[in-house]
Amino acid sequence: MKVFTEKIVGLMKSENLFESQGGPIILSQIENEYGSQSKLLGATGYNYMTWAANMAIQTGTGVPWVMCKEEDAPDPVINTCNGFYCDSFSPNKPYKPTIWTEAWSGWFTEFGGPIHQRPVQDLAFAVARFIQKGGSFVNYYMYHGGTNFGRSAGGPFITTSYDYDAPIDEYGLIRQPKYGHLKELHRSIKMCERALVSTDPIVTELGTYQQAHVYSSESGDCAAFLANYDTKSAARVLFNNMHYSLPPWSISILPDCRNVVFNTAKVGVQTSQMEMLPANDEMLSWESYDEDISSLDDSSTFTALGLLEQINVTRDASDYLWYITSVDIGSSESFLHGGKLPTLIVQSAGHAVHIFVNGELSGSAFGTRENKRFTYTGKVNLRAGKNKIALLSVAVGLQNVGGHFETWNTGILGPVALHGLDQGKWDLSWQKWTYQVGLKGEAMNLVSPNSVSSVGWMEASLIAKRQQPLTWHKAYFNAPDGNEPLALDMEGMGKGQIWINGQSIGRYWTAYATGNCNGCSYAGTFRPSKCQLGCGQPTQRWYHMPRSWLKPTQNLLVVFEELGGNPSRISLVKRSMTSVCADVSEFHPTIKNWQIESYGRAEEFHSPKVHLRCSPGQSISSIKFASFGTPLGTCGSYQQGPCHAPASYNIVEKKCIGKQRCTITISNSNFGQDPCPNVLKRLSVEAVCAPTN
C-alpha cells in the first residue's frame, strides 16, 4: 500500500500536478469507503485506517487528504460523504469542511437487470439541499462513466457499459437535460458564493414541509434557498413579503434574496434524443472456427482429486476454466433399455457453466449478481462404456467490494452428481478431474491480426445454420466515415467476448432485463429500484468501439460466442442525435432576471427563451411539434392542448430550420397575440436533427 501510494504521489509531483506546485489537483483521497470494513475488523481495522491516513500525510502533497465513508478519520484527514443525498452529513470536527466526494448521478448496470436513470430534477435538488445546509464541495460520481473495456468490469456481473446515466454519456456525448440543468444549477450557486462563504445560514420554517435557508452577511450580501420537501404538492410560500411558488420536491435559488434564478424541478434546457443508426458499412464476409473441445493440450492441463476453486487455478488469466472427468456406464443400465435418462446436477459458486457430454452441449446455467451460486439440473444422454463430462466454468468479473477476498469462491465446488442410475446417486465430486485454463483460441491468440490465420477458418454461411456453441467468428470491416461515436449491435448473439484489431472491447451478454419499468416520478427519495428502463430488452445490446482503435480499412473483428448465435446479424452503428425537445413556461426562472446592480429593485422582466442545438455537422431539418399555449405530453409524444397559438409552427420554423442552433423567445408578442389570457402558457418544441449536406 505504501509503495503504491508513494509511487502515484511521486508521479504527480514529477509533473507539478498538485495545487501546491501550481497544478490542478486540489484534493487527494486515501482508501475508499473503508469504514464498514474497518468496523467489521475492529481494532485491526482502525489501526490500518490510521496508519494509511498518516502514511498519506507523510507524502507531503501540500493539498488536503480526504477519506470517504470513514467517520473516525484522524486529523488532519477530512472525512467525507458518498451517496444519493448528503445533506444530513457533518464531518467529525467542526473545523473540517463538509465535502461530498461522490454525488451518485445514476447507478451501475448488471447483466440481466434494467438500466437505472436518476432524474436530473432530483439530482439538482440533492445538490441544492447539500449547499443550502453549508456544504463546501460536490464531486459527481459519475460525471462521465465510460466503458469497462477488456475484462475490467467488476462486480461480478457488471456490464461492459458503465454509462451511469451520467451528464456525459458512455460515448463522450453530452446527455441533455442532465448536463445543462446541472450547469445552470452550478452557475446559480456560484452567484451566491460571497454570501455562502461569509456566514452560516439562518433557517426559517415557511410551512409544514417548507423552509428558507438565508445567508446574510454584514457587507450586505444576501442569498436564499427556498425548499419544498413535499413529494406530492406544490407550495405557495411568503418570504420577505413576496409570494413564491415551489413545485414539489424542489428548491429555488435567490442570489439576492429576492429574484429566483433557478428552481431544481423546472428544467429549461433541451432534451436530446440519441439513437443508434446503421453505419451502412458492411462487415466483409464472416468466417468461423469451432473451439476444439475433443482434444486437450496435455502440456497445459493437470489433474487433481476433487473440485478446485476457479480463480486460484486461473489466476484471472482467463474467464474460462474446464473441469473434465469421465464416467463408465455398464451396458445393463435401465436407461439404455427404454428407461428414463439419468440427471446431472452441478452446483457452482459462480458465475456461469456450459455442460458438455461426449463433446455435445447438454445445457447451460447462470447466476446473477444477487445470487452468484446456482445449480444446474438436466437430463444427460450417456452411452454404454466411457463418457466424457466437460464443464466449462465462466467467470463474469471479479469481486469488487467487501473483505477477505481470499474466502470468496468462483467455479464449480460441487457437489457434482448423477441421479437416476440403477445404483441410485453417483457423486462425482471427489473423483479425478482434469483442468485446463482458458480456451484453445486464447492460447493460439486468434484475436491478434498477426496470428489470426494460424487455424483453418470456415465460411460462416456453412456454420450459421448450426448455431454451434463455443465458436470463434471473424470478419474485416472499413472504418465508417464521419466522427460520430461507434458501437457494435450484438442483438443476434448470446454471450462471449469481442476484440477489434486485437484489443478487447469487453464481455457481451444479451441477457434480457427483468425489473420494474413502470414509470418514474422525480419527486421523493431516489433509490436504484425507482426509475428503471429497458425491461424485456437485452440489458446491453450495443458495445462501444472507440474510433481511435480503428484503421481506415481492413479492421479485424473477432467474436467468441459461448452459446450459439448468428454473426451475420452483427452490425456497426453510429450514436447520433436525432431530435431535440424543449418545454419551457413563460415565467421560467432565468439568470438574466437578476443583475447585481439592480439589487432589491424590480426591473424589467426578461422573457425566458427556448434554446435548441443539434450536434456539430447537423442542422434542424424539420419541426415535428411546436405549440405555444397549453401543450400536453413529453419529448417524443407532445400533443396540442386546449390552448394553442396558431402561429406556433411558423415562428419556430422561421427561426430554426437549416440552423445548427436557434433561440425562440417565449412571449405573447412573439406569437402574434395571447392565445389564452390569464392562463400560464408554455412553449413545447420538438425539432429533427439531420446531417448538414
UniProtKB/TrEMBL annotation:
Source superkingdom: Eukaryota
Record EC number: 3.2.1.23
This protein's UniProt keywords: Glycosidase, Hydrolase, Signal
SUPFAM superfamilies per the UniProt record, alphabetical: (Trans)glycosidases (SSF51445), Galactose-binding domain-like (SSF49785)
Coiled-coil spans in chain: none
The family this protein is said to belong to: Belongs to the glycosyl hydrolase 35 family.
Name by which UniProt lists this protein: Beta-galactosidase
Organism name: Hevea brasiliensis
